[in-house]
Write a structure and sequence with these properties.
mainly beta, 47 strands, 1 helix, single chain, globular, 5-stranded mixed β-sheet, 22-stranded antiparallel barrel
């Protein structure tokens, strides 16, 4: 009786997770399937220390208090995403591909040496199931539950002789809307289809080839968003709101009474609220990726990993959050990305191990976006932005090696990466188009009033990231490690100017341990972050949008523990306890006032004086995250019945760096329970499940917005209680 080994590729080579000096989690394909994870939002059920926020069509992921606040077309995420080594750079591309998987790896902490730019928060590695030589196999799984939810997933692996195999898999996921939004209908419905075909071959001794093609189609309603009007043209919509208004400090005659809504609290409805329209989200993705490994004798293995992805999105998202619909964000974006990596790796575990390589990434984007006012005369756009092209190129070279100082006991790891980033774009901005009808202004209409066209100053930047660490193995079942590592998030530009890279230096010590014949695992990590030059978007006005400035610094430290105990051959207990102390030590931003954005806290002083938000907590940074799980197997001859209970607790946290009370998520708990029957040989299983027993819907987004003369507070909610039955057949 012992806990099973888990092999991961977090260091871009196969290692046992307990021998890998990285704070991480890994889940195999069965765990993903049984948890019903079909997109990135479901990952929180498996990795509760991930903070996942849906800001309409954007997905933001927070790890250890690190996330991206800017989601514009020139910005980058803070978490590196890879699917079979294909680099994913756009948050809108994260909404699918979670099917027929070998495993998912969640790496916490900066991974700048091996994963490069935009890995300040960490890395998310999605590994698809690969074709297997000489093995005809497959599975089919389907579930049905409340909200008329149906999911279907299937895969078949077919060998073609002794040296080639193919695998074809697909997924369909649909459900009715989670919220009653009459008269518009039910909001936040889901409908996703995906298919993947792959081939694996070993044509010659020492040569391995993998190629996959993937198609994903998302066609859903918009996300249901509840809104409350706080003020109209500077006048409070409800006199009672005055108790929550905090005057601007320092107070000046020009700003007196403008107010900043910090102390307002609301109790928004979370199941039923009227909307004037639901909107839609339509995303099509095509991807091709592959890998070639060639053994080159005693030198090691030469590998090529590459991918190409084409993402087309069309979004119509009502934003006011009540009936009738007063303004709608219309958004179209096309992006083409390609990434290529060549890597030479060699050595043997326990001895000298190295890898050296180069990386190239290219992204081309087209974007058209406007804020539409359907109730204006004939329908009018408050603004419209075109980005005929946004080009993003990154080239890097890297090397990392591990050298033993004392055989099988003490080793040192050092790595370095040099990255060169280039970005360029063409911006076309249109101001208010009142009285000109519901059609967007033409991109090439140079006579249209309010049109501004310009080329921002291109970004041409380079960065060096590095890591140094010591690994100590006092025995086979214990690892103690310490390391210093760096990461950065690339800079860019906006309507107003350019901004530099975010930079992070992380200090971490950790320990991974197995006890009692490997029936107990206890892992712990402690870290301290020096995070500076954070990119902060400051909203200016509706005709220009936001300006991004390097105005932020944070001090973050924490302790994380993971425990797994095999109490008996039939009983398993897991516990995660994380403590996070995160504080913004320097954070300058604009405030939303009653009548618009207040960018200058002291107009009587020359120059722009942003508001100082130092002392606030970063977004999605609860002090405590606790998860407890218990599984028990009941045997009836060769038949097995498994009961599983898993509960997650998060203490209070904020959804915005302003830390206003209306944007605060209070502490909550969510609990899942499953009961699964497995036939002899595990070829057939039936699972009954209920997720989020408490039916608690935490905020997935909460934030103030000022548009069209209205100051609003908007809320988006997490998934309510879901339950159903799933059947899986394997052959």
């Amino acid at each position: 009786m012992s806990l099973a080994d888990i092999v991961v590729t977090a260091q871009k080579r196969a290692t046992n997770i307990q021998d890998t000096p990285i704070a991480m989690r890994a889940f195999d394909g069965d765990a993903v399937l049984k948890a019903g994870v079909s997109d990135v939002n479901g990952l929180a059920r498996l990795a509760p220390d991930l903070g996942i926020t849906n800001d309409t069509q954007y997905t933001k992921i927070t790890v250890r208090g690190i996330s991206s606040q800017d989601h514009s077309e020139t910005a980058d995420p803070a978490l590196t995403i890879n699917i079979d080594g294909e680099y994913i750079n756009r948050p809108i591309a994260l909404n699918a591909s979670f099917f027929d998987l070998e495993r998912i790896e969640v790496l916490r902490g900066p991974q700048g040496t091996l994963y490069g730019r935009n890995a300040t928060a960490g890395a998310l590695n999605i590994v698809a199931a690969k074709p297997k030589l000489g093995d005809f196999q497959g599975y089919a799984s389907g579930s049905y539950g409340n909200f008329n939810a149906f999911t279907g997933e299937a895969a078949v692996n077919v060998p073609l002789g002794e040296k080639v195999a193919v695998r074809v898999s697909g997924m369909h996921n649909q459900h009715d809307g989670y919220f009653n939004n009459e008269p518009a209908g039910r909001g936040s419905a889901g409908n996703t289809d995906a298919v993947r075909a792959s081939i694996y071959a070993e044509p010659l001794a020492g040569v391995r080839v993998y190629l996959a093609g993937e198609y994903v189609n998302v066609d859903t309603t918009g996300i249901a968003q509840y809104g409350i009007v706080v003020a109209n043209n500077g006048v409070l919509a409800n006199p009672a709101f005055a108790s929550g208004i905090v005057d601007v400090i320092p107070s000046t005659p020009a700003l007196e009474g403008g107010g900043v809504p910090l102390r307002l609290r609301f109790d928004p409805p979370k199941s039923s609220f009227p909307l004037g329209s639901l909107g839609f989200t339509r995303i099509e993705q095509y991807a091709v990726r592959g890998r070639v490994d060639v053994d080159v004798g005693s030198i090691g293995t030469l590998s090529y990993i590459g991918g190409y992805r084409d993402v087309n999105s069309d979004v119509n998202q009502p934003l006011n959050g009540f009936a009738p619909t007063t303004f709608v964000q219309m958004y179209q974006k096309d992006s083409e990305t390609q990434s290529h990596e060549i890597r030479l790796s060699g050595g043997e575990e326990g001895g000298f191990v190295y890898q050296v390589g180069g990386f190239y990434f290219n992204e081309d984007q087209y974007m058209a976006q406007g804020l539409f006012l359907p109730l204006a005369a004939g329908g009018s756009f408050l603004n419209y932005f075109y980005r005929p092209y946004v080009k993003n190129k990154s080239v890097a070279g890297f090397a990392q090696a591990t050298m033993p100082l004392i055989e099988d006991t003490l080793s040192v790891t050092a790595g370095i990466r040099y990255t060169k980033d280039k970005k360029s774009a063409l911006f076309i901005n249109y101001g208010p188009q009142f009285g000109r009808g519901s059609a967007p202004p033409a991109q090439d209409d140079t006579t249209r009033p309010g049109r501004v066209e310009f080329n921002p100053t291109p970004l041409d930047d380079d960065q060096v990231t590095w890591t140094v660490g010591l690994d100590y193995n006092p025995s086979r079942d214990h690892l103690i490690y310490g390391k210093v590592s760096t990461g950065y998030k690339a800079g860019g530009f906006d309507n107003v100017g350019s901004f530099g890279a975010e930079k992070l230096t992380a200090y971490e010590i950790g320990s991974k341990n197995s006890f009692a014949g490997r029936t107990i695992q206890f892992n712990a990590a402690a870290f301290y972050y020096d995070y500076k030059d954070q990119q902060i978007p400051i909203f200016l006005d509706t005709s220009v949008g936001s300006q991004v400035v390097n105005a932020g610094k944070s001090r973050i430290w924490g302790i994380e523990t993971d425990t797994t105990i095999l109490l008996s051959p039939n009983d398993r207990f897991t516990a995660t306890v994380n403590y996070l102390d995160a504080k913004l030590t320097q954070f300058e931003a604009a405030r939303l006032g009653l009548s618009g954005t207040i960018a200058d806290s002291d107009p009587s002083t020359p120059g722009l004086q942003p508001f100082d938000l130092s002392g606030n907590r970063p977004v999605q940074s609860p002090k405590w995250t606790i998860a407890l799980g218990y599984d028990h197997d009941f045997y009836f001859g060769d038949h097995k019945l498994t009961a599983s209970l898993f509960s997650r607790f998060k203490s209070a946290y904020f959804l915005q760096p302003s830390n206003s009370l209306a944007e605060k998520q209070e502490a909550f708990t969510q609990t899942d329970f499953t009961l699964e029957y497995s036939a002899p040989g595990d070829r057939f299983s039936v699972q009954g499940f209920v997720r989020n027993i408490e039916n608690y819907k935490p905020y997935a987004f909460a934030g103030y917005v000022n548009a069209g003369g209205q100051l609003l507070i908007n809320y988006i909610y997490g998934t309510p209680r879901t339950y159903g039955v799933r059947g899986t057949f394997r052959f």
